[in-house]
Inverse folding.
């Protein structure tokens, strides 16, 4: 899933059961509060520390507050790609290219063991090692987003760092709201607040990479 609205390229399939590691002591919880409902995300700092800490640093700073879910991609209408997908994409108020923090190295699913199953939360990017603040939620299983998948021409996939533990129905509802021909929600769905359940993990402070 690329960061610029005109370039976003991400995917889908169905089920929340595939091999996403469960919560453990190093995980964090973040609630994304929207007018459509709250989406609760378990952030896997253990399996994907760079991507997870990147997301948590933006959330901890309040950077997602006042942002939005601005893009929806639905497999049945995503006919411009041979690898169609089902996702929603979010950004800070400064947009999908918000680089309040430096871009991070790509954590490939080949290395983390995380997969783009329904409910997976992953970082949007252009080329490898370009991800910043924008992220997307997968609403149906999408192996084409994993390492070696066909959605991105470079075959490197995208960096899963968490999973939806409640509110996947909210994400799917947002996905089917009105959108224009560029798959941009009209209007975008505001993110009222991104609330961390626990303090920012020590390993996420400073520069974890």
């Amino acid at each position: 899933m690329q960061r610029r609205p005109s370039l976003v390229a991400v995917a889908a399939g169905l089920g929340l059961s595939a091999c996403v590691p469960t919560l453990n002591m190093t995980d964090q919880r973040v609630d994304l509060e929207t007018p459509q409902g709250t989406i609760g995300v378990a952030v896997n700092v253990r399996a994907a520390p760079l991507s997870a800490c990147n997301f948590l640093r933006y959330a901890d700073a309040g950077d997602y507050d006042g942002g939005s879910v601005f893009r929806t991609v639905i497999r049945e209408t995503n006919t411009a790609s041979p690898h169609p997908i089902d996702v929603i994409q979010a950004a800070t108020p400064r947009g999908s290219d918000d680089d309040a923090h430096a871009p991070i190295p790509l954590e490939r699913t080949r290395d983390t063991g995380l997969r783009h199953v329904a409910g997976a939360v992953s970082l949007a990017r252009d080329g490898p090692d370009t991800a910043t603040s924008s992220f997307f939620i997968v609403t149906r299983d999408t192996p084409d987003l994993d390492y070696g998948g066909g959605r991105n021409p470079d075959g490197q996939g995208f960096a899963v760092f968490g999973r939806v533990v409640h509110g996947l129905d909210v994400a799917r509802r947002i996905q089917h709201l009105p959108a224009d021909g560029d798959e941009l929600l009209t209007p975008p769905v505001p993110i009222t607040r991104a609330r961390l359940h626990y303090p920012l993990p020590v390993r996420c402070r400073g520069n974890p990479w």
Q: What stands out?
A: Residues 28-204 form a domain with the Cyclophilin fold (CATH 2.40.100.10). Confidence is low (pLDDT under 50) at residues 2-26. The chain has three helices and nine strands. The first strand starts at residue 28 and ends at 34.
